[in-house]
Design a protein that fits this description.
Shape: globular
Number of helices: 4
Helix content: 25-40%
CATH superfamily: Gcn5-related N-acetyltransferase (GNAT)
Mean pLDDT: 94
Low-confidence stretches: none
CATH architecture: 3-Layer(aba) Sandwich
Order of helices and strands: EHHEEEHEHEE
CATH class: Alpha Beta
Largest sheet: 4 strands, antiparallel
Radius of gyration: 15 Å
Distance between the termini: 35 Å
Strand order of the largest sheet: 1-2-3-4
């Protein structure tokens, strides 16, 4: 059985990460990996990871931890994507659960947040299937915020 793992972004996997593709209807909804990687190199609060299926790179995720943010926005997942050829096979759900587990290792992580466009029904359903709840709040007036309570 193939294994999903979350690994640090390195010189050994960066180029495969840059080659990942989204479905046509997702391209305008998710920032390109090259943009996210560049952003993570100038913002020390961001951590990029590569999603592997055994030795194959199949996705990208970036987390944010801002100790100065309010408790409910301290831990954030600003980017998550799975290559179009690996979507709808359960790999994204397993990868996101592993990212949640990584963030939960921080004792002060009580909530994990993320956002998506309000009309992105498939993304909202995906995140809700992992326990995220739509808060009804908007990020920058355009994306709905979803929150996962990991401990109280």
């Amino acid at each position: 059985m193939k294994q999903i793992t979350i690994k640090n972004l390195t010189m050994n996997n960066i180029y495969k990460c840059l080659d990942l593709k989204l479905a046509a209807d997702q391209v305008k909804r998710v920032a390109p990996n090259v943009y996210s990687i560049a952003e993570s190199k100038v913002n020390p609060l961001l951590t990029p990871y590569v999603i592997h299926l055994d030795d194959e790179v199949i996705g990208f995720v970036m987390t944010e931890c801002d100790p100065n943010e309010i408790e409910e926005r301290r831990y954030w997942i600003p980017r998550f994507m799975i290559d179009v050829s690996y979507q709808r096979k359960g790999y994204g759900k397993e990868a996101m659960q592993q990212v949640i587990d990584i963030l939960k290792m921080n004792d002060e992580c009580n909530y994990i947040g993320l956002s998506t466009e309000p009309d992105n029904d498939s993304a909202i359903h995906f995140y809700e299937s992992l326990g995220f709840v739509n808060t009804g709040e908007l990020l920058e007036g355009k994306e709905v915020i979803l929150k996962l309570t990991v401990r109280r």
